[in-house]
Amino acid sequence: MSNWSDGYINSIGYTHGYFSGLNPQSVIIPFLTAGIKPPKIVTACELGFGQGVSFAVHSIATDAQWHGTDFNPTHAHNAKNLLEQSGMDSSFACDQSFAEFCQRDDLPDFDFIAFHGIWSWISDENRHIIVDFLRRKLKVGGVVYISYNTLPGWAANSPVRHLLSEYNKITFANTSPANLPSLLDKSEELLSLSYRLQEETPNMKDKIISLKDKNPVYLAHEYLNSHWQPMYFAEVEKWLADAKLTYAASSDFLDDFQSCLFDDEQQQFMAQIDNPSFAQTAKDYLLNVQFRRDLWVKGGLPLSREAVFDEWSKLNVRYIHDVNQFEYKASRRRSVELNKEVFTPVLTLLADNKTHNVGELYKQLGDKVSQRDLIVALSILNAKDDLILVQDEQVVQAKAAYCHKFNLQMLESAKSSSSGSIHLISPLAGSAFMLTRIDALFLLAHQQGHKKDKWAKFAWQILDSAGQRMIKNGEELLTAEDNLAHLAELTDNFLNDSFKTLQALEIV
User: Fold this and answer.
1) C-alpha angle with apex 116: 110 to 121, nearest 5 degrees?
2) C-beta separation of 333 from 287 below 8 A
3) 141-166 pLDDT, tens per residue?
4) Buried-most residue among 10, 12, 93, 393 (CB within 10 A)?
């Protein structure tokens, strides 16, 4: 039998997560913050797309033509199924290995190539294949999104990962999430008797204990693969240099916003570093970074400060929450207070939850907010998931029907007892947003024309027919009356919060 998985766990499906950083729209703010012109993304590619949720969402909702592969055929099948539920062509989702896919002669050159997480879990041979693919198939000016486990942050966890992996090899014939409780117990016992190791590395046993609350599917992929190599930033930079790539920015604005990262003394230290590459190394050491989500560019075009604001002025934005609930704080590694003199006038204009052009916003603000402060404020609002970049109107119109059809299928799937949370697509943002299963049932009731005071009954009938009960304060509700009462409470919460956001996103 051929080893088509090349050491990667293929018997366990990956989690059904959605990653907004893979949306081409997410390139714009980080690039402008770095003073680089964002490219027009027409063709895009995702390598190792897992269950294909992000791949399908961005294929459905953006105007880029997407190609992608994941060598697990179940993953590829799920991606194709998601695309077909929207009415989109699923032919560009493959189950080929990187070696097969990257040598195809029918692929276009790409403006955007993304791979989330896989860099840490593949062999050096596959890394060479990917770098060669980037060198050949990424356009000049093109962007690469890469996320990976980072050193020095992972240095303390490396012995834990190695111990779990070795115990798994000698104890079980196959890798399974069901193995994790036993592996964690055995490892904890060994470390309890490792007196010298505990003395020199006192937190190692605590790391084992903390893993017991994690998703076992995630742990199996993270800790039990044959290949696993966290890397320093400089090592990744050396790999990608062969594809003529240079570092552009973190994919999330707050991951580069120094006030949310460093105290005053650390900021003064960082200000002394002139070398941009070493600045990333210093950042990883100061913060003990475990995971990076970065954007790289092939020949980035630098912009002047005036040109940066000109690019911002073309953008359209929409605030998607209730401004009255806005918290004047931004948090990443540190929490900082936001300047109300800047944010309040901006939020006042955005409070109608309608689309606003940034250039027009600046004119309306007059002399209340400077260009720089407006840009920073909008970037922070976007990073806090309060504000979206709105796609061009023609894209929204072209994609709305596909998004609507996909969303209806996802809501129908919430009836299933196997459904947990679901993702619905906003044609405005070109991104997906998560709903709990219960909120999805309320929205399904709304879509089917049920009055709001009947949503709780609608949801309860579905749960009751499956023999399911609600949990409140950690206790199962046994009677129909108690379940209906709790669902009625949740209906009110949904109407006052998530439902309004869904309306602002034009999902509803």
Assistant:
1) 120
2) yes
3) 999 999 999 999 988 788 888 888 88
4) 93
